[in-house]
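Sequence only, no structure available. Ideas?
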Amino acid sequence: MAVLYMLLVLFSAVFVAGFILLVMGAINFDLSNSEIPPGVNQPIKIRIISVILITRAVVGKILENIGICSQLSFLRYMQNRKTLGGDPKLFIKDLCFETVPVRIYQPKAPSASQRRGVMFFHGGGWIFGGLETYEKQCRFMARESESVVVSVGYRLAPEHKYPAAYEDCLNATIHFMKNTEHYGVDPANVIVCGDSAGGNLAAAVSQTLAGSSDLPKLRAQILIYPGLQALDFNLPSYQQNRGVPFLFRERAAFYLLQYLNGNASNLEEVLEGSHIPIDIKLNYRKWVSPDNIPEKFKVRGYKPHVLLDSTTEVYETVKRFCEPNLCPLLAEDAIIKQLPETFILTCEYDVLRDDGLLYKKRLEDNGVPVTWYHLEDGFHGVMNSFNDWFSFSSGKRGLDNIM
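Reply:
I predicted one. Tokens follow.
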């Protein structure tokens, strides 16, 4: 018995020591690889969350190396654990629209008129996220705006490459718009909404439906720090915020390549800008250019980037980056002109900031009403955590402005 006790104590000591070393390694990695500018909201909390995320990633890699599960599966499991029960103010139900899993949030209080409907597409770089990840935000939106919110559990990369996520979001939206009467929703008051990769999907769905003649027009689109192009990863915001949590410049390109091809074999070419031929870049330069970014967003360490050409071999692997369903910023003016009223939220310390600014200009140039809200102290993912210790005051401020 004494020997067993000693072994247990030894095992516990080794485990604790190993965990401490793991956390210390995560702290060192965070300090070495991330940059938190002075104007960022609650920097110490960002550091703590970043260390937690890095530690999770390392644990996932260890589990993968010893054959228990893949790192990706572990990280998804940690994200998507169910933590909430019922809600006294909402009916919450899991369904499938066609083959797409959705979760519907309906206010319990009776309404004198038909409600607004909100199709919500979660973020996560097309790789992470799900119905559980954004549960708190969806409940908040349904309660505060007294809307019927439909959260879409679209297929994820790299298992399901482009256009799987886009097709799921489009098909779920069409299904809902054809059946709004079942949920007490006004068919003329349906909104698409998404953050990050979800903002990309919302913009793509909105463009596709803009020319539809057999469905009601979307009432609006809400794009929360959306990623909208893959031609230029050297825009001012990509340079200035390349190491700001929770989305590094390299990760942004990595996620897009995973969504496109299921791998990131051309990551270096994409980052340096040698993945798209110069003639094609020049064709789109009227829309994707630092020249279209207001000067006040260039003062923080921006250096103009030299245009590089691409080999045919590399371009062949990424040429679908020029498709608007993947990169909505590249849609033709004829489509942009038909888009509904738009709300765009951007964050100063976000690599995707300039995607939002460029899209804002395109919409305004084509006569689309735009409401723009910019979080001067915000960063990518600031609205992902909500109403707990991991939340940020600027994120709550952004969510309040959306509602």
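Confidence is low (pLDDT under 50) at residues 9-19.
Hope that gets you unstuck.
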